[in-house]
Amino acid sequence: MDEVSAAASGNGMCERNVRDRIGHMQAKKRYFILLSAGTFVVFLFYFGGLQFKASRNQSRREIHSSRNGLQHTSPEHYWPRFPDALRPFVPWDQLENEDYNVHTSPRQKRDANASIYKGKKCRMESCFDFALCKKNGFKVYVYPQQKGEKIAESYQNILAAIEGSRFYTSDPSQACLFVLSLDTLDRDQLSPQYVHNLRSKVLSLHLWNNGRNHLVFNLYSGTWPDYTEDVGFDIGQAMLAKASISTENFRPKFDISIPLFSKDHPRTGGEKGFLKFNTIPPLRKYMLVFKGKRYLTGIGSDTRNALYHVHNGEDVLLLTTCKHGKDWQKHKDSRCDRDNAEYEK
C-alpha cells in the first residue's frame, strides 16, 4: 500500500509539473503576442504620425508661399500657365469600333502600335527632364534642316511658328524642349509627303536621347481603311502631338491631342485687333465648316456618315464625298450622289 501511495503521489507531482510548464509556456506565448501587437501599433502610430506631420508641414508651406507671393519650385512651374486650361483628358474604357475590327485583328493592332508605344507608361514626372528647364526657362530648339530632306508646307508652318515665337532658341544647350526638323506629319505610306527611312534618321540625331524632352507632331498615320497609329519609328520617351489619337494609346498629361488641319490653314489669326473681345457669337457667316471624305467603310465611317444630321446648308456646312478609294462605288449608298454634288460646289 505504501508503495502504491508513493507511486500515485509521484504521478500526481509529475502531472502538476507538466501542467505548470504548459501554463508557463502558454503565458509566455500570450505575452509575446501582446508584445508583438503593441510594437506593431506603436510603429503604425509613429509612421502615420510622421506622414501626417509632413502633410501638415507641406500644407503650411503652401499657405505661407501663397500668402507671401512665392512661387513653387515644382516641375509645373517651368511650363507656361494659361488662365482657362482645359480639363485633363480622361481615357474611357478601351472600346473599339466594330468596323475597325473587320479589317485589323487585335493582335495586328497591338503589334503595329508596340513599335511606337514602348514608352506607353510615360508621364511628365517619369519621362521628362525638368532640370533642362530650370536654368533657362521654357526654351524650344528646332533641329536644323538636313540637306536634301523634303518638308511639307504644313510642317514648315509649324516650325516657322515655333522659330518666330519668344520661346525659340538656336542653342540646344539652352533648350528645354526639342522639335524635329524631319517631317513626321504624314506617315501614310501611300502619301507623296511620306518620309522614308525615318527610323534611322531619327536614331542618328545625337540629341535624340530616346526621345526625352522631345515633341513629335503627327497628323496622319497608317493607310486606309485601317489607319493604324504606326508612325514608322519608336518615339521612345518623346511626347506626341497627334490628331485622331486613340484613347488606348493616349498618355494623359503627356501627349497632346491636336485637330486635323489642312495645308491651307492660316499660320496666324490675322492682324492685331482682328479678333474682337467678347464677340460671342463671332461675327462670321459660318459657325461650323467641315469638308472631307466620307469613308463609307473602315475606321471613321461611323462619324463621317452621321455628319449630315448636323449639316443645315446655312451656317453649319458639313460636306463629305463618297469618292474615296478605287472601289468606292461598290459601297455607294443613297446619299452619295447628293453629297458628292454639294461637296463639289
Automatic annotation (TrEMBL):
This is Exostosin-1.
